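step 3/5: co-fold with alpha-L-arabinofuranose
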Amino acid sequence: MRTRSTARTVIAVLTGVLLAGGMVACGNSDTGGDSGSGGSDKLVLGFSQVGAESGWRTANTTSIKEAAGQAGIELKFDDAQQKQENQIKAIRNFIQQKVDVIAFSPVVESGWDTVLKEAKDAKIPVILTDRAVDSADKSLYKTFLGSDFVKEGRLAGEWLVEQKKAATGPVNIVELQGTTGSAPANDRKKGFGEAIAANPNLKIVASQSGDFTRAGGKQVMEQFLKANPKIDVLFAHNDDMGLGALEAITAAGKVPGKDITIITVDAVKDGMQALADGKFNFIAECSPLLGPQLMDLAKKVKAGEEVPPRIETEETTFTQETAKEALPNRKY
Ligand code: AHR
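step 4/5: write tokens
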């Protein structure tokens, strides 16, 4: 008797387990399309990052990873190593995995329409962060979150115009551009150029890409110094290239911040330190702390809520004096 009842109990338990298993399996296939590749209720965000070219980028990656964890979002992170083809591959992978939302910081502005159309056809909303694309069809993405790069260039140029207002002869400027074809390189060049047009003495005598890296900044600055006997000002599109250029300037026997006025963009800790130490002269801030806003937007677009087409980060500028005050509390 006891053996028969034990057997009945075992069968009942096994049946229960199998049924429960079946129900989970049904639940998975029912919600598989909606709940993203994770198969859980967690929002799944596929993020394609530009690379790890600068201190700014490292801080941006940290902000995104930390914010995803805090928001309970499953993050699928891909580092494109500064290559557009890698970003396109990553976006196609995210589409195949049926993530809920795709976000990316486009390495360059052009050439995204085909892959963005594929995401749209798969009904996966796309958020642009940090850098914009030049697609005419604005329906290919939901929103852009990032900085006004033209304004950053303009603020840098306006500061220089003010500093050199008493100049009676030519002021020779060299420009270290960011990655060729990228939104920050195009826009910072534009804003700076427009601002310095206010003083005809201010002339850009050489302009070349240093790809937003320290090594690039150093190498291109060495060439600038060899080719141009009189350089008065360096405008570097980011701190890292400015920091690389410092090495070239010092090696050439010149005093950075004195013999050559140095203006950069970003305001990461190393740049702020150089400014506080008198080696840089001015920085236009560009904030990399986009993570929390991005997670908020991902939740909203997934829920089908309306979001503004463009959300700009609030930023400031720093002189040598204000950098000294701000440095102790700088987070990145
Ligand atoms: O897109 C933002 C820019 O990219 C930052 O100014 C630069 O440091 C980075 O590499």
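step 5/5: annotate
The domain at 44-147+288-314 is CATH 3.40.50.2300 (Rossmann fold).
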